[in-house]
Amino acid sequence: MTELRRVDPRTLVPNPNNPRKTQPDARAEHQLALNIKTVGLIHSPCVRELEDGRLMIVAGHRRVRACIAAKLDEIDVHVRSGDEKSDTMAAVAENVVRADMAESEQWRGVLDMREKGASDTEICRAFMVTPAYLRGLMLLSQIHPPIIAAIDGGIGPSYTERNAIARTPLERQRDVWAEIWAESADEGSDPADYEMSREDAAHFDWSDFVRYLDQVELYARDYEFDDETAKEAGVVWEEDLFGQGGEDNRYCTQYAAMFKAQQIWAEKTRPEGTIYLQSNEYGEGIAPDGYRKVGSWEMERDGDIPAIWVNPRTLQIQKGRLRELGEQSSRRTESDALSLPSAQNPEKPKERADISGTGLKIIGEVRTQALREALAAARESADPWDLIGAFLLALSADNVNIHGDNTYDPYGAASERDRAVASVFPEGVLVRDPAVLRNAALEVLCSFMNCEVSMHSGSGLPAQILGVLFNADAHMPTMAFEDFLKTYSKPGITKAVQAEGLEEKPTGKAMREALMAHVGEKRWVPEPATFATGIPAWKAKIKKQAARAAARAQLDAQTEEDDEIDDQSSDMELCDEQDVAEADEETLTPEEDVSADDTSSVSETTSSHTELPDDPRIPTQLAELARKMPEHLEIIMV
């Protein structure tokens, strides 16, 4: 039975077992209160009457808070009859189905339902989820709490990685977690309970964490480093009492310590002239700028530089070779080789960027919105030459194929380009109306030009230059909000607050709060987020293109010159051959003033060669040539 009553929202009692425990977003709460104040309460909360006559909220805590904030004296509520089990199910279902709810809250709600006797089938029907999703929630019961917190924060492991983690004993998860975050936890706190932030997540690889869990027993006999190195790296050996006799049965379960020991040992035992490299997630060494790794199938050259690195997957020291890019290694000098970072001067790890990849994505989205607003504002006054320049820019955009058109419909509906062309060529002839052309051109630009960070659909630098052309910086909104500022590294946020004349704070959070308080309601856009920052990169791009074009022209000119020299050489050789042939012909032709005695002497010495039988098989020209060259040519009949 359900009864509709009109009550004062302030008299309603919150449900102590409300499954939603996370703090609500203040901005969303304020928006809901304004909405209710404007249009009224559309969906009444559900309540249950307690034994003392008070009404307890079953579903609708957020709506009740919004009604109180909107200063409503009375609201309608549904008073339902039921037991604790049905009320809990309604509360959890209301959150799962109608509003976003953290996975840990859903999991706790499911546990509560099971304790009250609900079957999995009933829970799936009530929450509108599949049994597979329900099984995924139950994995959280076998996962270390800080990892669950990361999952709730959207920075946790994937579903596959969760399965691998859940198969590992909680004690092992806790030990590995404490080992990883030992240096990040506050002094006096247990690193096993450390909850990672989004800044931590930017440099954390869950696949590595899963691999650490699998590396349970790392035996000393599989590694070469000595006891001094082990002590320096913090390796603590344990003895395998069931190991085979006569072998070194010491082992360690601290993956990070063993990894560090291998790195130190690789540095210590590095042969002279060998480079120590950092490794990537696949276990391959990372070549420094200006160099590449030489493949195992390539021939070794004198200028190749030996390199070593530690594979994080196997913890084995691996070897390879480096070769300079753009030049033959044989041209390298000894001083060139010494300029490469070596083990005595190891390559410094790359410093973290001021703004993370997530921050760059946010900048791209905000820039896109500002660019589209700038184009829309120019509809009435855009100069035709500006439009021509804009379309030339658009044709050089990275996504000109065109990917990323937000008006494209794969089911055949007209895109913005189709509609624009139809408006300016309605009868197959261009409509020369400036307003129509201007509006159509800007609509098409808005449909695909964007500043998003995407390999396939982002427009790249041309979109930033387009924003400069249409003064899109003036349309940029304030970026002094928490989600964006969290993407800054500590050095990055330090630079940001110092640019505003503020003092550096001990933590990034304190500096973010100080910056937001300083900015207040004013518009704040950091310099890296402005469109104008694309101008230097654009100039560099144009300069690089010009250099490539000049190099190509020089190569073409050199090739053409070489071809002309080859042609001249061929002509000269041909002339020489003709001269020689003419000279031979003149030498072989009998002179008219030769005496009879000379003729008779020649005939006597060559009679054996010139007397050729009349044979139709011998060509006449060949026979004549044999008579003229008796010393060089003789026809032998076979």
Automatic annotation (TrEMBL):
Biased-composition ranges, Basic and acidic residues, are 324-335
Q: Where is the composition biased (Low complexity)?
A: 597-608
Map out region (Disordered) in residue numbers. 1-25, 324-356, 553-620
The segment(s) forming the ParB-like N-terminal domain are 5-96
Q: Which InterPro entries match?
A: Chromosome_partition/occlusion, ParB/Sulfiredoxin_sf, ParB_N
Highest taxon listed in the record's lineage: Bacteria
Pfam family name, one: ParB_N
Q: Which Gene3D superfamilies match?
A: 1.10.10.2830, 3.90.1530.30
Regions of biased composition (Acidic residues) lie at: 558-596
* Protein name per the record: ParB N-terminal domain-containing protein
